[in-house]
Amino acid sequence: MRVGDLDETELLARVVPLMPTEALLGPGDDAALVAAPDGRVVATTDLLVEGRDFRRDWSTGADVGWKAVAQNVADVAAMGARCSGLLIGLGMPADLEVAWVEDFAAGVAAACERFGAVVVGGDLSAASEVLVAVTALGDLAGRAPVLRSGARPGHVVAVAGRLGRSAAGLDLLQRGVPDAPPELLAAHRRPEPPLAAGPAAAEAGASALMDVSDGLLRDAGRLAVASGVSVELSTRTVLGEWIDDLGDPAPVLTGGEDHALLGCFPPGVELPAPFAVVGRVVERGEHGVLVDGRAWTGSTGWDHFSR
Amino acid sequence: MRVGDLDETELLARVVPLMPTEALLGPGDDAALVAAPDGRVVATTDLLVEGRDFRRDWSTGADVGWKAVAQNVADVAAMGARCSGLLIGLGMPADLEVAWVEDFAAGVAAACERFGAVVVGGDLSAASEVLVAVTALGDLAGRAPVLRSGARPGHVVAVAGRLGRSAAGLDLLQRGVPDAPPELLAAHRRPEPPLAAGPAAAEAGASALMDVSDGLLRDAGRLAVASGVSVELSTRTVLGEWIDDLGDPAPVLTGGEDHALLGCFPPGVELPAPFAVVGRVVERGEHGVLVDGRAWTGSTGWDHFSR
């Protein structure tokens, strides 16, 4: 059965019950109602487009649903917050199998269970390619949000989560490598952002925090610009901690979509697990990011339009 | 200049400053922070896809930006709330003119000014067609949300705003009518939902409220199902009030996208302007909606997949 064989009401009746939808008021009315107990709400949105952000021959519907949730809850965690609700827009061609949509919803549900999230609303639309628009809401529990702009010279730079795994998995898919390591393919298809590290970093007194979605170098560069500082990274610490099995540092430094957290902490702060030091913050210099004391001359990560 | 000539940072630097972005924390970090003063937040999302929801030869970028905002703030109003923030995802082909994106942002800004909204976040992505994903957040100011499910037999049914104008404008564009009435084309391109009527209905004690996005009959049918009632509409009141200049009742009863508000009120409630009575709520019968005492046998409005 294909999407075009059902009307919107019938399609919603099939997929909404597959997902956890508890909220003050969930799907079914003109809008949802979500608790915002401290009088503020964190909000972030992402678009995923078939052929750009995923391929249906490389990822199942469930993989796409998982990833759409994971990358948005990671953005919420990167403010130091916990996700309080998701809104999911899904555009699809009329000839898409309904089974794919049900699988997508199952992936959303699995990620919701893993990350402690619920779906409060959404929208369906026809489109010529599959596209997913997710908005995540979050609760800071009274804490101040941790911005990108608070890093100061002398602070340590640390990463929670793994780097380069998603890019390595994508590379294996692109090259069609047989018997590719399943854990690298899984890292691309179903990233596991270390969500609890976000609120933990906020509690510990992190001065800056962000999601590493476009590669460590590119995102550290953004943090450096926002904070008016430079960041010195050490490949020994970055590489030593995460990917002994990959020789080339480039995927670790530039690969996106692992949704690790990049945090800066004032001196003397005990880093919450699983943060590990990867560098330090220095006065703003000619380059926003230095790798082992030098400017990086390779590619710097993902950009939607320039590659 | 085309979108593909710029990287994401450059494109954001061009369009973000065109829009009002005041919030506790607006665009630029991993997520926004929006005030939710009564401890709850209303949230709704919509996808607009080129070729389905708009055509670039019939609507300017500014028209598309306006409409994307209008239909989402209408959903917030339909809960009885006021918009507290918008998140806007924009997908586009690399060969799209940057001027179109700037025009889109100007249309978003114009609608924000008209409707009292601000943009707090968003996302850009490459796509093979232009697509817009808007999430609107809203504040109920301590009121209970007005749902679709509260209508009871004996309540009056009323509409605020005009009906059938957007569909009439779309029909003129589809038929290529020269010298079409500009106000009908404008109704299609830049709908003007009667936003203030939402909170006013909530204050007045409306028992049910919803946005008329897919046509009065279809949306009244949804309200009837949600409330477990039937709705009797009178074409004399519906037509007499709004479109003396259109003879056929079908566009008024089935045309979508005007984003009028459909409300039900207990007997004796003084209707807030501009609500006007169009019918009454009765015990649930064989048909969810009756028109002049009979079941409607024509088409019932917009469905994304079945037409």
Automatic annotation (TrEMBL), chains A, B:
Describe the reaction catalysed, as an equation: thiamine phosphate + ATP = thiamine diphosphate + ADP
Where on this chain does Mg(2+) 4 bind? D30, T44, D75
Keyword Magnesium found: yes
Q: In which pathway does it act?
A: Cofactor biosynthesis; thiamine diphosphate biosynthesis; thiamine diphosphate from thiamine phosphate: step 1/1
Residues the record lists as binding ATP:
G122, D123, R148, S213
Q: Which residues form a coiled coil?
A: none
Per the record, the domain of life is Bacteria
Say if the entry is tagged with keyword Nucleotide-binding.
yes
Q: Which residues bind Mg(2+) 5?
A: D214
Which residues bind Mg(2+) 3 per the record? D30, D75, D211
EC number(s): the record gives: 2.7.4.16
Q: Keywords, A to Z?
A: ATP-binding, Kinase, Magnesium, Metal-binding, Nucleotide-binding, Thiamine biosynthesis, Transferase
Q: What does this protein do?
A: Catalyzes the ATP-dependent phosphorylation of thiamine-monophosphate (TMP) to form thiamine-pyrophosphate (TPP), the active form of vitamin B1.
The UniProt family comment states: Belongs to the thiamine-monophosphate kinase family.
The protein, known as = Thiamine-monophosphate kinase
Species in which this protein is naturally found:
Kineococcus aurantiacus
